[in-house]
Amino acid sequence: MAKLDRLGWAAGLPFVSHGASIGIRVTAPAVLEHLSPHLPPGWKPSASPIVEYLYSLIVGGQSANTNVRRYNMLYIGAAQLARKFDLTEVLEDLESSLQFSISVLARGRLFVHAGVVVWRGGAIVIPGRSRSGKSSLVKALVEAGATYYSDEYAVLDEQGRVHPYPKRLSLREEGQERPRLCPVEALGGRAGVRPAPVRLIAVTEYQPQAAWHPRQASAGDAVLALLDNTVLARSQSELALQTLERMAVGAVTLKGKRGEASEAAALLLQRLEALAKKAPAGRPPAEGESA
Amino acid sequence: MTPEARQDQLLVQKVGDELVVYDQQHHRVHRLNKTAALVWRHCDGRTGVAELAALLQSESGLPADEEVVRLALARLAKTRLLRDECPEAKSITRRQVIRRLGLAGAMTLLLPVVTSIIAPTPAMAGSGRIIAGGEDCGAYQNGTCANNPKCPYPNNQTCHPPLAGQDQTRCFCTNYVDP
């Protein structure tokens, strides 16, 4: 770490997001101007230089006087995260690592790895690991008119309501090694701004040629599936159990393999629409529905 | 010897008529369906198998058969939710009980079920690959990296179980990047 500290740091950005304080220092001030789209949702600049995690970005590029091409290097603390010629790729690595750091350091919120959209005032939460097809299902739901909350984390408060975490969608395309980062607006969708109650939990995974015939699972099943994707399941197990119980008992849980995202999305929205009609009258309008 | 539920280092959450039990010692999480939960809650070291069977009949509608209780005890013993050895936890399959009692349709859903997962570490629950920093942060025992010293940076939340290709008896400080 001392070796890194000795380098000439030209600029830095301390910020907070979800109660986590993070700093990024760079060797080239111009890079800070390009950082904004890579920062986590809800970030705010911080006046305090004291941070929990410190990222260091050594900017490489072509040397002016020689033909030497230098790597861009990214560190968290003293540990190297990335060493690449392509600065865009390094910034995307930074973005991904920042999301993870926030999920670990967040205060008063439980981060569950899941896709989330809201429709008719109720949230659909799709827990799942990487490459289970969450983002493509979230994309199909947004294209069908749902409000985007996240394709990565369900951010839950103690009441079990889900808060927006509208990062750019990570869309994997055939033949591409890295996912394409896509703002929800580019899909014609919009991001939510208010917390929403969870009405539907879809425990599903993409399987080619599968037709989606989900079975209704118990709330206990839902808690287990959500806990399996909870970032701090081990260190915050008590909070996680209580929060997930509150969330799951108020929701319907569907479980099963799915085929094409558009087919599953249409069925999920139909199901949620039916649930919304049964919702108690007199409650205030929620995200995605008119007063 | 009457069965007795383990109490220490367990977090128990009631979810509807089921229970979700977090085992803080082994970092396993178990879902007990209504019947398994009923048996487990009444394993007090005093209630015998016959009494448990009668209790099941009155509360769940299953036949008052001791084999159902033994099936539940076998599942609970396997997941280390009972204290000590339980001789009543007989090795018996669900299929054998269904055949013996002649259960069909929805009645089979009433049989005791315990579903388990390993509680994920932060990186396991994440969405990407882990880039191993490689620094050894202690022994990997009983499926956990508990009681290990903190990683120098950022902190012990990045002390992870070994990945494929690493020493499977050690934990390693890791960093995390999405591909």
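Helices of chain A lie at 2-5, 87-105, 134-143, 219-227, 237-249, 261-278.
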